[in-house]
Design goal:
Layout (H helix, E strand, L loop, with lengths): L4 H17 L2 H23 L5 H17 L4 H14 L7 H14 L4 H9 L8 H13 L5 H12 L2 H19 L1
Helix pairs in contact: 1-2, 1-4, 3-5, 4-5, 6-7, 6-9, 7-8, 7-9, 8-9
């Protein structure tokens, strides 16, 4: 984890902004998730000192672990972008490279316009939840086991049958788009 106070502060701001952009974090993970977001930010900043290849290997590992636990890789992609914006110096261009790397993987299966249109069909109980479901389908198409199952299980435990049905319909449409 980075020991630089300015970078640690940037990590805290980035975690707060990520929570704001994706209320899913708070709804699913509560305060525990914020603590992980802050500590993950500190760890992500250590990747700036690695080679591009090694840093991207670490990003792929973390993104897959998180996606399998109900946090589609889109969340890490956006967090990396936000973290880079919050840094007081331009030292860590690797964060932008890593975010672009994850974005390319996501868009390989469902392009941005299709993803946006699909997500818009979902009557979201939380902002950006439709986008996360579509992103989970892209993760699944890219070989991340349990990417859809994990987020869908939480929806089943949290929301009524209407939301569950809407989520399943969106997932099916996204899977069809990913196959096309």
């Amino acid at each position: 984890m980075t020991g630089d106070p300015a970078e640690l502060a940037a990590g805290q701001r980035a975690a707060a902004r990520s929570y704001e952009e994706f209320p899913y974090y708070a709804a699913r993970f509560r305060e525990r998730g914020m603590r992980f977001g802050i500590s993950d930010s500190g760890w992500l900043l250590t990747l700036c000192d690695l080679s591009r290849t090694r840093a991207l290997e670490q990003i792929d590992w973390l993104a897959s672990v998180l996606a399998a636990r109900g946090m589609p890789r889109l969340l890490l992609e956006r967090h990396l972008e936000i973290l880079r914006e919050e840094l007081p110096t331009p030292r860590c261009a690797m964060l932008t490279t890593a975010a672009r790397h994850l974005r390319a993987k996501r868009l390989r299966y469902i392009d941005e316009e299709t993803a946006r249109n699909l997500a818009a069909t979902f009557a979201e109980p939380l902002p950006n939840l439709g986008a996360l479901l579509v992103a989970a389908v892209s993760d699944e198409a890219d070989g991340v086991a349990h990417a859809v199952e994990s987020i869908l299980r939480w929806i089943d435990e949290t929301y009524d049958a209407d939301v569950q049905g809407g989520a399943r319909a969106l997932i099916e449409e996204a899977r069809n788009a990913a196959r096309a």
